[in-house]
Amino acid sequence: MSSPSTIPPSAQMFGMITGFWLSQIIGVAAKLKIADHLRAGPKSAQELATVTGAEPSALFRVLRAAASVGVFQLGADNRFSLTPLGETLASGVPGSMREMAIMQTSKGHWLPWGKLDEAVRTGQPQAVATLGCELFQHYAAAPEEAAAFSAAMGNLSALVASEVATHVDTIGLTRAVDIGGAEGTLIAALLANNPSLEGIVFDLPHVKGTTEAKLAAQGLLGRCTVVSGDFFKTVPSADLYILKQILHDWNDEQAAAILRNCAASMTPRGRVAIVEMVIPDDGAPTAAQLMDVNMLAILPGRERTQAEYSALLADSGLRFERLVATHSPFQILLGTKS
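Now predict its structure.
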């Protein structure tokens, strides 16, 4: 196989242009739970078609394509088996990306991305134009897709949860609120690290049942409640606010409004921990630049530099303290009351 440096530019560009083919192939495999079915051992396309309800020949072609890039392995007996890469499409395993694959290839993200050119021409997100409503209204009316979104956010949170619990000092604090906390992955890590801390997951009503079930399974429901509300209006009082991939959904005015509500409800010793993909000042390639275009296509938000987050905090009556790098795509920006 040729190394990237020996592949002609036109061939490299062909791979980039057709990247969405692979996205949808992986999305289909995730939706059909192919990795789950293969965890017990190799299976033929016919066997997999029987348990998934797919057409055998069509399924074989899709899985053969996935095997060609290492997601699955196709044996000489035409049976498919799981690879370490394909394992990440299994449900509930550490590092699972199954729900992320479903979310990114379903209507809520897929259709607005199809009008990226219009987003670039107008500077406006394309959710309303393609979905008929804003993204989070779409999720409220599409429970299966909303569940995939919440689980995907939980999976991303799991990538950084242990480092948030390590770097965010909760000694002497009484209550932490995970703003838009979805399944409560980050708050659970903080509570596990500090037995005297209480928590609140503050999110939209449709996540309440799933989040409570997740917390109950970890024995944390007695120390953590799930509260529904609108963070543009008010947030519960606390010593610590965790905001993971919340501010990037919104423009500067909206993001500052969320932070001002945190500042208004914050105890005198309160602080915030913002977990985001921060755009590097030196232009080094990271996931942040691509995530920024995702925001352009779908939501009014954007990814920001450290200086831009510092300015947002100052505009909200808060003071930027420091940025903490992690071993994930995320960084942690810590702030306190001015």
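The beta strands are 43-44, 72-74, 79-82, 175-179, 198-203, 224-228, 238-244, 266-276, 318-325, 331-337.
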